[in-house]
Design goal:
Order of helices and strands: EEEEEHEEEHH
Strand content: 25-35%
Number of domains: 1
CATH architecture: Alpha-Beta Complex
Shape: globular
Number of helices: 3
Structural class: alpha+beta
Largest sheet: 8 strands, mixed
CATH topology: Nucleoside Triphosphate Pyrophosphohydrolase
CATH class: Alpha Beta
C-alpha cells in the first residue's frame, strides 16, 4: 500500500469500510431524505474540511460517525478514485481494520440511521449496499485481503 496517498490534500473526500475483526463492517443506513443513495447502506466517510489530508478526513469522519479513533497503523488500503459526486475531482477509498474489542466502545452519531456492525458477506450481497462501495470492497478483498 502507498501510505503517501494518506497525506494527499487533492481530494473531495474519503470513505471506506472499517472492519471490526476479520469479518464484520461498520455500516449505517443513509437518511431517506438525502440526495445520493437514500436508504442505502453506507460506510464512514465524507467531505474534507479545509486543507485536511486523506487520513485526517477519514479519521475525523470515523470519529464523528462512530466515536472511534483510527491511527495510520489501522489503515490497510487506500486507493484514489474519481469522485462520484464531483466530475473531475478525486476521492479516496480507505480501509481500516480494528480489533473486535472496539465494538464495546462504539458511539453512534445522529448522521444516518440504523448504525450497525454487519457481516461483510451480508453487506456484499445486500441490494441496499451502495453499488460502487460493494465493488471497491470486493476489489480490496480479492487483491489485498485481510
Amino acid at each position: 500500500m502507498d501510505k503517501d496517498l494518506l497525506n494527499r490534500t487533492d481530494h473531495q473526500g474519503a470513505k471506506g469500510p472499517v472492519f471490526i475483526g476479520e469479518d464484520k463492517l461498520l455500516v449505517y443506513e443513509r437518511d431517506r431524505r438525502t440526495r445520493y443513495y437514500p436508504g442505502y447502506l453506507d460506510f464512514p466517510g465524507g467531505g474534507k474540511d479545509k486543507s485536511e489530508t486523506v487520513y485526517e478526513t477519514f479519521k475525523r469522519e470515523v470519529d464523528e460517525e462512530f466515536g472511534l479513533a483510527i491511527s495510520t497503523s489501522d489503515i490497510r488500503f487506500v486507493k484514489q478514485y474519481p469522485s462520484t459526486r464531483y466530475p473531475g475531482k478525486l476521492a479516496y477509498f480507505v480501509v481500516a481494520v480494528l480489533p473486535e474489542s472496539v465494538a464495546k466502545t462504539l458511539k453512534f452519531s445522529h448522521e444516518g440511521l440504523n448504525h450497525q456492525i454487519m457481516d461483510v458477506t451480508d453487506f456484499l450481497s445486500s441490494p441496499k449496499a451502495i453499488p460502487f462501495l460493494k465493488e471497491r470492497t470486493e476489489f480490496f478483498l480479492k487483491t489485498v485481503g485481510l
